[in-house]
Amino acid sequence: MLVLDPRRADVPQDSMATRVQAYVRHHLRDADLDPAQIAAANGLSLRALYGLYESMGASLEQSTPSQRPHRARTDLSAPRQRYTSIAATARAWGFTNPSFFSHRFRQSFGVTPRQWRAGVRTTPTSGP
């Protein structure tokens, strides 16, 4: 009789989660990246994909869009990107609307992309 090790019960799901997250990271620049594309590329149904994210304690709708401003912020800080326009950086990370990108960036970091590039950083205020 085959006895399964209960410590290994989550290995296939963990492996799938790692694979899906790697796929998303690799395709984050695709403006048309959506749940259907992610599911199909990983051999999952939409329901299974949403269930996978739920089991990770994450939301697919929040995960992908929240990664893009972080990646764009890295590019805006990179010396090799200093001559790339902010709009081009936004497009490179899947934002088709520069105004929406600016709004999401400010929402994420408390400064505009232009301020970030200029070196303005937000710092937590300290108490008296």
In total, how many beta strands? 0
- The CATH architecture name of one domain reads Orthogonal Bundle
CATH class of one domain: Mainly Alpha
Encode the helix/strand succession as letters: HHHHHHH
CATH fold node name of one domain? Arc Repressor Mutant, subunit A
Tally of helical runs: 7
| Beginning-to-end CA distance, first to last residue | 67 Å
Q: What is the overall pLDDT average? A: 83
* Secondary-structure class: mainly alpha
Largest sheet: none
Uncertain residue ranges: 1-11, 123-128
Radius of gyration (Å): 19 Å
Helical content, roughly?
Answer: 55-70%
**Overall outline:** elongated
CATH evolutionary superfamily of one domain: Homeodomain-like
Estimate the strand proportion.
under 5%
In words, what does this structure look like?
This protein has 128 residues and is mostly helical. It has helices spanning 11-26, 35-41, 46-55, 60-77, 86-92, 98-109, 113-118. It contains seven helices and no strands. α2 crosses α3 (46-55), α4 (60-77) packs antiparallel against α5 (86-92) and α4 (60-77) crosses α6. The radius of gyration is 19 Å and the shape is elongated.
Task: Sum this structure up briefly.
With 128 residues, the protein is mainly α. The chain contains seven helices and no strands. 59% of the residues lie in helices and 0% in strands.
Question: How are the SSEs placed, and which strands pair?
Answer:
Blueprint: H1 11-26, H2 35-41, H3 46-55, H4 60-77, H5 86-92, H6 98-109, H7 113-118
Helix pairs in contact: 2-3, 4-5, 4-6
